[in-house]
Amino acid sequence: MKFLTLQNIRRLYSVFFIFLFLFLAGITDFRNMKGYEVSLFLELDPLIAISSFLSGWTLYKGLALSLIIISTTLVFGRYFCSWVCPMGIINQWISHVLNRHRPVDDYRLNAYRPVYRFKYYLLTLFLVLAAFGALQVGLFDPIAFITRSFSISFLPGVYYSGTQLYLKQPLFYGGVLISLIFVAVLFANRFIPRFWCRVLCPLGALLGLLSGVSVLRIRRDVEKCTDCQKCLRYCHGGCAPHEELRVSECHLCMNCIEDCPEEAIHYGLARENSSIHSPVDVHRRRLIETAVAGIVLFPMMKSVVNADSAPAHSVIRPPGSIGEKDFLKRCIKCGECMRVCPTNVIQPGLLESGFEGLWSPVLMNKIGYCEYNCVLCSQVCPTGAILPLSIEKKTGRPPFQKPVRIGTAFYDRGRCLPWAMHTECIVCEEVCPTSPKAIWFKTEEVTLRTGSTKKLKLPYMDPKLCVGCGICENKCPVHDRPAVRVTSIGETRSQTNQMILSS
Amino acid sequence: MSSKHSRKEPDISRRKFLRNTAATCGLVAATGVWGYLAYSDKSVRRSSEKIYSFKDYRTPDSKSRPSMVIVHGTEVNAMALAALNTLGGMKRFINKGERVLIKPNVGWDRQPEQAANTNPELVGAVVNLCRQAGASEVWVTDVSINDPYRSFARSGIEHAVQRTGGTVRFTTENDFVLTDLKGQVLRVWPVSRFYHEADKVINMPVVKHHSLSKCTIAMKNWYGVLGGRRNRLHQDINTSIADLATAIRPTLTIIDATRVLVRNGPTGGNLSDVSRENTILAGLDEIALDSYCLKFLNLQAKDVPYLSIGEKRGLGVVEWKSLDYVELKV
């Protein structure tokens, strides 16, 4: 028995990359992040690079790493899916566990099916939408999908079952929705192995298209081949290696090479008796239909009420976020900012900012608050929806003139203890992090119900100093609906969502 | 012709019939017994969660030693050593093999220079003295207001503690246990369990301005033992502080007045709010120590009602000069 077979080499790679993914997901926090490139997998992802290029016309910083995957795919083929992609590897393992492996099952499950075309139509739809400026690719991009699922549902779940990863149990708004989708995707492997990769994955479709030009491929020698079909049994991609191989479906898992008893299959350049290959199996008519659907969908998606067309008070974006219109062109809803946030304030929004903003980061001050000296979310964003900040830039220390504001706090005097109930409090003033404090108080003598008087500190907010961090809202003792609440108005990123004429 | 629908029930023996019937009757009886045992007019059984109370961490008074020492100087390690030596050495307070808990103020994600947290050098020096006195473990803990990881890291305290052989204990959600403070306004509150596991407790506050209580020094530092929505305490802050100081009687109090935050407390953030005082205090009487420190903030004892509330309860004396104290320069 040889140990260093192609199959085992691939397995080593997949184990390495899955551990790398888990390691990077695990260290995405304040204490362990250091200078690691924790968004590495997102940055390697060509689909994110290309679609965010189409929506924003730039290849943002780390996304240039995806050029490695693009160029190697052009030469070597769609190796990413079975060698590198954590989503693909997990799906492969899960489908191995969920299915029976009698030969009759394997041959049936790993055969090509016409439904595998669906991913190309999905890709077309997302690219057309992105070209018009609506970046929805994050919903189905496998790396964004798995990063989001791990950050928002899997890792918090691991913590809840008793393993120490965080100090405080992270809670996510509507997180179970993301969990259910993740579980459903994994369970779909029960019916079609690697259902996600073969049927849905738009990144797989993109890499499949790129691999169409590769010269190095799996090749079958038609003279040596006895049509025993053993190559089909363990095929990852369902690419029909026993027929005219469907190159765009082939993950280069290399199983067929070693399964062939006649040594008729090799990986490399074409030889004398190499079989021809099938082109991508899509109908031009369907493709045009999908593109048209995208074109029609775009204006309908834009003609809705969202945080851009009507500023939404609850849509408070992380500090460093770019203007809402541009933000929606860049955010891929990967959840890295939510994972790294030390106070858990960054939450996957639902429909607050319109359908386009589903699962995009929104600050909910009831759950956490924006830590004054923290800029972690801006450091991990792979697409530049949140631009990197330094602490000096965020807090407005020299050489910077003004702090980054994410909103403004307002008092609800009907609920405030000193204002409404003549009770001593001013917790909000105590915790206010700016210096001088944006929250200040007047000591006033108030007349009580009994007619006696009492000296009381009544809090006020100075809009010139408030940065909207929300710690006042978070720490307010009236904590079901705080008496001081932050809304998005006054946010630095917007020219129009302002209230004070000169500040 | 037989189909799969025409299979017949087999005859069973009397023995088997009796056995099956007995099993059925047994299950019926078990249903009744379970109903009888579990029936209740309460929706849940009484929660069996234990309610703790604080132990007294104090050591017996020594007549021959001063009970309060004020050290001026710039070399923090030497100042800490001098202070403890004057009081009779750390061995007076800590026996070999004891677990010592140090409670500095690490409330905020601020740097040492901003004086919102206890001076990390002083914390390190005290950890070191405890280790030398033979403490088996030295824990440093606080329930920070900002993110605890960030607060401990940026205050420099995590590093100082690790360097000197102590352990930083972060209080997770599961580390709070209900504790009866037996106070006038404070009764049962969640308290970090480390206080119940330690043998000796050292209070290590920093002197800061605070708008509601005027100042936060030693007595106010006990806020940091509580979990839950402790900011409710603001509604009667003076009684709350006195209740906390009554409930927790530390072995020793060491006050950091090297840098004093005189405005915009307790968060600060601006170096112009910090005044250099180059002083540390150590002693047994929290009220006397607090009242000495009022001068750094230009306050009088009458501005700070919790001192007199505490004095009335017999926690200490406001007039610190009446104590046996030593003031020295290092």
Structure overview:
The complex is a heterodimer of chains A (503) and B (330). With 503 residues, chain A is mainly alpha-helical. Chain A has helices at 6-26, 40-44, 46-56, 66-76, 80-83, 86-98, 103-109, 118-132, 142-160, 175-187, 195-200, 202-211, 255-259, 284-302, 324-330, 336-340, 376-380, 391-395, 417-421, 427-431, 471-475; strands spanning 217-220, 265-268, 346-348, 361-363, 408-411, 439-447, 453-461, 484-487. Chain A has a two-stranded antiparallel ribbon. In chain A, strands 3-4 form a two-stranded antiparallel sheet. The longest helix of chain A is centred in the first third of the chain and has 21 residues, at 6-26. Chain A is elongated, with a radius of gyration of 27 Å. The N and C termini of chain A lie far apart (76 Å). Chain B has a single domain (68-329), classed as Rossmann fold (3-Layer(aba) Sandwich), CATH 3.40.50.11440. Chain B contains 9 helices and 12 strands. In chain B, strands 1, 2, 3, 4, 7, 8, 9, 10, 11 and 12 form a 10-stranded mixed sheet that branches. In chain B, strands 5-6 form a two-stranded antiparallel sheet. The longest helix of chain B has 25 residues, at 14-38. Chain B starts with 13 loop residues before the first helix and ends with a strand. At the A-B interface, helix 20 of A face helix 4 of B.
Brief summary:
The complex is a heterodimer of chains A (503) and B (330). By secondary structure, chain A is mostly helical. Chain A contains 21 helices and eight strands.
